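User: quick one, fold this
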Amino acid sequence: MRNPIALFLLVVCTAALLPAARTLDFYFVDVEGGQATLIVTPSGQSLLVDAGWRGYDGRDATRIVAAAKAAGVKKIDYLLVTHYHLDHVGGVPQLAERMPVVTFVDKGPLQEQGRQAGELFKAYEEAIAKGKRIIVKPGDTLPVKGLDIQFVCADGDLVSVPLKGAGQPNDLCGSEKEKPVDTSENARSAGFLLTYGKFKFLDLGDLTWNKELQLACPSNKIGTIDLYCVTHHGMDLSGSATIVHALKPAVAIMDNGARKGGSPSAWQIIRSSPGLEDLWQLHYSIAGGKDNNSPEAFLANLEEKCEGKWIKVSVEKNGAYTVLNSRNKFSKTYQAK
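Assistant:
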């Protein structure tokens, strides 16, 4: 008969040599009121959503590269540009110079008029000439191993039928008025729902108020979610209660800057959303003051001139997810619905 002690030691030593199970990781990079969210799958594939601003001596590209290094990522497999505004697409050329980007993902041609818009799009086109390109429309999926990434809006169009498990009537429909029609790139944002087992994450870019109402009414086409990237940096041009309260996020992360985003009305809508546990912010909002900002433990950057600390979210296979503030190492774990 085999020695039970030797057998026990063999099992323990073998387990120690096995690689730890990897998590699905999100790095919400501080790009001062723009967006740059790095998503790294358990298999090591990477998806970057937007690349922040251009200029500032390459500040945003530097911060993204630092997050990628921390995640063990040497290339960006997919770079999704939600829309062609300065705080989302501006940093793409500088980032592409610093690390390889395999595939660029966007909503197609520029629709907005204006000199700056044209210059930004031209610089983007020059950058994507070095890689592959995928143009998405609502209903399309992104071939990322182990994840279900489905686009719910792109180039002004929206999914016409509810996603799987969604479609519930929305009692809030009609309770909020539409805003003036937005003809900018914001209303043409490419937004998606990411599903990993029980866990669901939503990012709508800068999709504006009226488009959100169409996604949420007369029935909720998205369903409920766990993690919500606050639309449009928490500006009151987006984030209607009609959609946010229908989504019922447990955790919201606001990629606001010290002086950009974080409107008091947006805070109020998010905080009053059914089932919300916490709102995390990339920055303390100067205009928001103590009455609106989240508690200090949930703020990645306290000062206007900061080091650019990020917020990291790690999702386990069973759906549990932990949010970490890289500034103070404060973390909190939540359970998927």
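User: anything notable?
Assistant: The CA atoms of residues 31 and 52 lie 6 Å apart.
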